């Protein structure tokens, strides 16, 4: 018995080491990437080297689909993904990105995301992933070459569509929009040549992708609220001792807040930069909110039970109802 107890004591005292390889699309010099790098460094120091993140920036491991595929076959253990890819792991997370849910109210969108984060984390765990942090990327807007004055006018535009995204597909079908599927790197040139008239992204994305140099108008009527998350496999997380798990989560949550604050400021700065470029911000009338709500209702009906569960929708609606 003494031998067994001694062995267990020695085993408990061993420092588990977890080396976690993570794929990230963000280029290394961006504010987002800088914060992730600081977070990884702080976690390594706090855990005395027991938890070490090897971050591959700038899409060096491929796009998000490539990173997720490499995670599934064990070449990587984690990634920082946008909603589309997160939805392939845990469809319930996409409920926060249903178009025309928050309109201009970014603060309410963030509060809702934070309130639902424990629910999302639980769903990730059921899919054998550990979510370390959830981020707001920002409100999504249309930018266009041609001026439109209401939602109906958008139907006359040729709009880039992110192929394979069920929310985008559903929105285009529900609103009867003309989508042109293109790889993300092809959008800039396609705006120049007229292959497309419009695209959509958070402001920080527009600036990073240089779409602001090829458009004349921004529709000041947010389409949706875009999120991201830092997830690793449950197997990788299980290699971290309970004490180091606690330290890792404390630091990750600290940087989650810092990154969200940084993204909010970067989006504000991006909008200001676009205004300074004389890009015209087109406001829709308040009547369009009711029109948008009709589109949202149609999308919710089609997506519930297919992309996200009724339970996720119920939790979202309960949070939205709060003041």
TrEMBL record:
Domain of life: Bacteria
Keyword Transport recorded: yes
Residues in the signal sequence: 1-18
Key words of the record: Signal, Transport
The keyword Amino-acid biosynthesis is annotated on this UniProt entry: no
Pfam families: DctP
Transmembrane segments: none
Family that this chain belongs to: Belongs to the bacterial solute-binding protein 7 family.
The protein, known as: TRAP transporter substrate-binding protein DctP
């Amino acid at each position: 018995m003494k031998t067994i107890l001694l062995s267990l004591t020695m085993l408990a005292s061993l420092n588990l080491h977890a080396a976690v390889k993570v794929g990230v699309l963000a280029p290394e010099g961006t504010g987002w990437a800088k914060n992730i790098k600081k977070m990884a460094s702080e976690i390594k120091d706090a855990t005395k080297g027991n938890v070490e993140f090897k971050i591959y920036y700038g899409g060096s491991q491929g796009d998000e689909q490539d990173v997720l595929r490499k995670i599934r076959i064990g070449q990587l253990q984690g990634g920082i993904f946008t909603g589309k890819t997160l939805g392939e792991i845990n469809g319930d997370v996409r409920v926060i990105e249903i178009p025309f849910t928050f309109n201009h109210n970014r603060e309410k969108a963030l509060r809702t995301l934070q309130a639902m984060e424990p629910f999302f984390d639980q769903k990730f765990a059921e899919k054998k992933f550990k979510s370390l942090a959830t981020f707001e990327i920002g409100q999504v807007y249309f930018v266009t070459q041609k001026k439109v004055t209401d939602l109906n006018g958008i139907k006359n535009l040729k709009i880039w569509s992110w192929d394979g995204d069920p929310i985008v597909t559903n929105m285009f079908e529900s609103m009867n929009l003309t989508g042109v599927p293109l790889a993300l790197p092809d959008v800039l040139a396609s705006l120049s040549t007229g292959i497309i008239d419009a695209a959509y992204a958070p402001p920080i994305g527009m600036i990073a992708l240089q779409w602001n140099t090829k458009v004349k108008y921004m529709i000041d009527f947010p389409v949706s609220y875009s999120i991201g998350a830092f997830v690793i496999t449950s197997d990788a997380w299980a290699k971290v001792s309970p004490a180091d798990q606690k330290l890792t989560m404390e630091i990750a949550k600290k940087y989650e807040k810092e990154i969200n604050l940084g993204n909010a400021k970067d989006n504000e700065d991006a909008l200001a930069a676009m205004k300074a470029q004389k890009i015209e911000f087109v406001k829709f009338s308040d009547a369009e909110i009711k029109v948008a709500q009709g589109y949202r209702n149609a999308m919710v009906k089609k997506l519930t039970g297919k992309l996200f569960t009724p339970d996720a929708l119920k939790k979202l609606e309960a949070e939205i109802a709060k003041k």
